[in-house]
Amino acid sequence: MRLTGAGRIAGVIGWPIVHSLSPLLHGYWLDELKLDGALVPLAVRREDFAQTIWGLQRAGFQGVNVTVPHKEAAFALAHLSDAAASAAGAANLLIFRADGKIEACNTDAVGLRESVREALGELKGKTVLLLGAGGAARGAVLGLAALGAARIDLLNRHADKAAMLARGMQPLVESRLSAGGLEDWAKLAPTAALVVNSTSAGMKGNPSLALDLSLLPSSAVILDIVYNPLETELLRDARARGHKVIDGLGMLMHQAAPSFEAFFGVRPNVTAGLRARLVEALSHA
Ligand code: ATR
User: Fold this and answer.
1) In terms of Cα–Cα distance, which of 59, 58, 73, 60 is closest to 13?
2) 3-state helix, strand and coil shares in percent for the chain, rounded to the nearest 5
3) Beta strands in 102-253 (DSSP E)
4) 227 and 148, same structural domain?
5) Is 6's pLDDT higher than 90?
6) pLDDT of 64 strictly over 80
7) Quick one: pLDDT band at residue 59, thresholds 50, 70, 90?
């Protein structure tokens, strides 16, 4: 059975899940658009993931957002996938289709792309320095390439992981990819128009990366995908040096919009009101 029209239900699945902002985000849009529906948080262990998904599908859910640690399992379980999920080998959105198939999507790349576009516009001819080589970095490469970045330099604590990612993704994008270790910062920082932190360093409880920001051109923009805390040490230091900064909330809101549309049938707007609501929630987190 599949619910249509009023009363659509979707979920967000992770372990843990209490800190997820997705129920708040989707709830805000449901209220704003006066739609009858809900997005419920579901704490599900790794070993229970597949059974839970099949159960939710049978129970009439529209689909689920997927977060740590299930993104790879979600991709593996789906019958079909969009280009971004295939490139990432991971999904943050599963859509339960009317024909019974489960579709894996990845909206992280779109989220980053729209967040950068909103703040900076296109990246044609520009060089981006991307820190990290995990799942988030994969989405970031796609999003940055879609904006026309000429070069993306991937730097990771373990340089071999950055090299593998660059090799694997080069055939998928037109931007020229290069890879190195964090020690290559000194060489590459002076050419960066945009720096993107896709590592979990700087997240609440994790120390920040030690980077010498004085090596950046004064026009360089710094984006951190971490949004808890909203102003990471990296963004605070960059702002203090006069750089334009982009926090992780833009990406969070923009990656949620296509999920909301898939679940509830309407494309929502990313607004200052939504941002203010999320900032307030984070201040109590
Ligand atoms: P995600 O899917 O969120 O990207 P991930 O795949 O676990 O998560 O990747 C985490 C990224 O943050 C990796 O690039 C990791 O570097 P390593 O591959 O060298 O482990 C990076 N990272 C996490 N903590 C870090 C730290 N304290 N310093 C530097 N890099 C860190």
Assistant:
1) 73
2) 45, 20, 35
3) 102-105, 127-131, 151-156, 176-181, 194-197, 221-224, 244-246
4) yes
5) no
6) yes
7) very high
Give the N- to C-terminal CA distance of the chain in Å, as an integer. 37
Catalytic amino acids?
Answer: 71
Q: Find the domain containing 165 and state its range.
A: 109-249
Is the C-beta atom of 102 inside 6 A of ligand 1? no
What pLDDT digit, counting tens, does each position of 158-184 carry? 999 999 999 999 999 999 999 999 999
Task: Check whether residue 134 and residue 159 sit in a common domain.
Answer: yes
pLDDT, position 2: 46
Residue nearest ligand 1's atom 21 by CA? 199
Do 241 and 115 share a structural domain?
A: yes
Pocket test for ligand 1, best of 157, 185, 196, 232 (most atoms within 8 A of CB): 157
Shared domain for 213 and 122, answered yes or no, is yes
Domain count, the chain: 2
Closest CA to 193 of 225, 234, 222: 222
Is pLDDT at 112 greater than 50 in this prediction?
A: yes
Q: Are residues 87 and 216 in the same domain?
A: no
Contacts of 97 (CB under 8 A, 6+ apart): 103
Residues 195 and 262 placed together within one structural domain of the fold: no
pLDDT digits (tens, 9 = 90+) for 243-261: 999 999 999 999 999 999 9
Q: How many CB atoms lie within 10 A of CB 60?
A: 14
